């Protein structure tokens, strides 16, 4: 029988927990450099095998729902959001999957583009001529408004107020991949109270859509009235958990990467110039940002993709071995957790030239470094459970970037922000920027945009259509 993976040394009681929480990248890079692509750590008593590199990542994604369980490893997400989608056992997930994917179809995506522009423009219109702002908080707020408006409807976005997002913040602070999620710790007690209140806030909107379905056309209507294949209505608990899950999946992750995109562009003036030229050519003042011109903005897309490579919000993904599994020369025993680490794997020098350099042109024709292996870029996961909201998020990050750089000159005050591993997403720490409005007046142009389904957008392809 083959041996188990080599382990990084750690404390006898907590293992590698403290470093995992504070400097995950440093810990995992050390594991990879000193022990190779398959190595182990301990989080409290739980052994975890890390698999780094596309061949091993392929095993991780293709064995999911077979030898590897997703819901057992994400018990901490189930504790925060409820049992739904991948936090539920596979038979439940596969029954719910068509319901979960329906709102992400490309014809629906086109409609969300208009909402994204409206929300981003409303934010930009509040900024005045010049000033300073904290980027992470500002982008989080705009992404929350997009999530509430597009996913839940305008009535929900307008009436829920700061209380709703304050409760979500409490959930986020209790997302802890290392500690058992039902320990009687204050943060878990606060989480359970917040979850209860959130469910109470969401429920009347579900009831309203069931009573007057003809008045709505949003994600929430889809879920409130969803039925399984055999015609049975989706359970109320599952409806609420789906909504909670999507609101969660859709905001901290996107906000983190959108903020990093802006930061990395400001740190890379040569590429920023290309991007600004593209915005001037494809999205001139006075024109609305339609699906058609968005789809032609390759430099903006590559900028967002390069940030996903270097600063993936979902920096580690987890599974639990349901039986012994062979990975390369090692045996991972039943009961171990397995993890992949996107921010280590996406910086492997044999796949990406000068991997520590922000270089969006690595995706341009002729280089296409992302095309070498199906599982080399895993910031949005892979296989059956690949992110359903990937195109939604990419479009949103592109729109934030394009509108912001179209209308403002920006400068980083916080020159080199570090990663903050909080709230279930690897976000930048607080980052201050200085802004000055450009002389051409763009205010509210985008607010009137009507994107039509005929304007096919390549970033609007849902995963069912891949
Ligand atoms: C930059 C933003 C985002 C990132 C980095 C991200 C990342 C991910 C990752 C890595 C997974 C797979 C998890 C795993 O395999 O363990 C995932 C799944 C998922 N994401 Fe996202 N996500 C983002 C935005 C969104 C948005 C905006 C939505 C919805 C509006 C969304 C909805 C989902 C759903 C429903 C799944 C589960 C798919 C399934 O199990 O079939 N995500 N996401």
Question: Would you kindly provide a brief summary of this structure?
Answer:
With 466 residues, the protein is an alpha+beta fold. It is 47% helix and 12% strand.
| CATH homologous superfamily designation | Cytochrome P450
Shape: globular
Mean pLDDT: 90
- The CATH architecture category equals Orthogonal Bundle
Query: Between the first and last Cα atoms, what is the distance in angstroms?
Result: 39 Å
Structural class: alpha+beta
Uncertain regions spanning at least 5 consecutive residues: 443-458, 460-466
What is the N-to-C succession of helices and strands?
A: HHEEHEHHHEHHHHHHHHHHEEEEHHEEEE
CATH classification class: Mainly Alpha
- Largest sheet: spatial strand order: 1-2-8-5-3
For this structure, the CATH topology is: Cytochrome p450
Radius of gyration: 22 Å
Can you walk me through this structure?
With 466 residues, the chain is an alpha+beta fold. It has one domain (17-465): Orthogonal Bundle (Cytochrome p450). The chain has 18 helices and 12 strands. Strands 1-2-8-5-3 form a 5-stranded mixed β-sheet. Strands 4-12-9 form a 3-stranded antiparallel β-sheet. It has a two-stranded antiparallel sheet with strand order 6-7. Strand 6 (325-327) and strand 7 form a beta hairpin. Helix 14 runs antiparallel to helix 16. The chain is globular, with a radius of gyration of 22 Å. It starts with 16 loop residues before the first helix and ends in a 29-residue tail after the last strand. The model is unreliable at 443-458 and 460-466 (pLDDT under 50).
């Amino acid at each position: 029988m083959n041996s188990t993976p080599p382990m990084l040394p750690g404390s006898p009681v907590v293992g590698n927990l403290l470093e995992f929480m504070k400097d995950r990248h440093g810990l995992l890079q050390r594991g990879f450099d000193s022990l190779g692509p398959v190595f182990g750590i301990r989080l409290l008593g739980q052994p975890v095998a890390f698999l780094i590199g596309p061949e091993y990542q392929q095993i991780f994604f293709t064995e999911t729902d077979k030898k590897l369980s997703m819901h057992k490893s994400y018990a901490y997400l189930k504790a925060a959001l409820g049992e739904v989608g991948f936090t539920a056992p596979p038979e439940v997930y596969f029954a719910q999957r068509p319901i979960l994917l329906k709102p992400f179809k490309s014809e629906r995506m086109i409609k969300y583009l208009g909402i994204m522009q409206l929300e981003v423009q409303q934010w930009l219109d509040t900024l005045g001529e010049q000033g300073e702002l904290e980027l992470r908080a500002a982008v989080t707020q705009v992404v929350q408004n997009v999530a509430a408006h597009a996913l839940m409807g305008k009535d929900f976005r307008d009436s829920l107020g700061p209380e709703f997002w304050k409760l979500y913040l409490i959930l986020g602070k209790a997302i802890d991949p290392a500690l058992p999620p039902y320990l009687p710790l204050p943060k878990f007690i606060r989480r359970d109270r917040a979850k209860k209140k959130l469910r109470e806030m969401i429920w009347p909107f579900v009831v309203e859509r069931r009573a007057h379905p003809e008045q709505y056309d949003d994600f929430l209507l889809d879920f409130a009235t969803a039925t399984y294949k055999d015609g049975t209505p989706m359970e109320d608990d599952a409806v609420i958990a789906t909504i909670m899950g999507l609101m969660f999946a859709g905001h901290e992750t996107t906000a983190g990467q959108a903020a990093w995109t802006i930061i990395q562009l400001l740190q890379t003036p040569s590429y920023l110039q290309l991007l600004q030229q593209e915005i001037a050519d494809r999205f001139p003042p006075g024109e609305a940002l339609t699906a058609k011109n968005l789809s032609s903005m390759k430099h903006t897309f590559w900028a967002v993709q390069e940030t996903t490579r270097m600063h993936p919000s979902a920096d580690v993904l987890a599974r639990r071995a349901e039986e012994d599994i062979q990975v390369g020369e090692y045996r991972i025993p039943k009961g171990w957790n397995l993890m992949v680490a996107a921010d280590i794997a996406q910086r492997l020098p044999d796949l990406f030239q000068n991997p520590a350099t922000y270089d969006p042109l690595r995706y341009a024709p002729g280089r296409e470094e992302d095309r070498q292996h199906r599982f080399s870029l895993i910031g949005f996961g892979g296989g059956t459970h690949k992110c359903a909201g990937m195109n939604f998020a990419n479009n949103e990050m592109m729109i934030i970037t394009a509108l912001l750089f179209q209308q403002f000159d920006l400068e980083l005050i916080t020159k080199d922000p570090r990663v903050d591993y909080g709230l279930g997403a690897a976000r930048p720490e607080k980052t201050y920027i200085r802004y000055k409005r450009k002389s051409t007046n763009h205010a509210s142009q985008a607010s009137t945009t009507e994107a039509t389904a005929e304007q096919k957008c390549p970033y609007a392809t849902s995963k069912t259509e891949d």
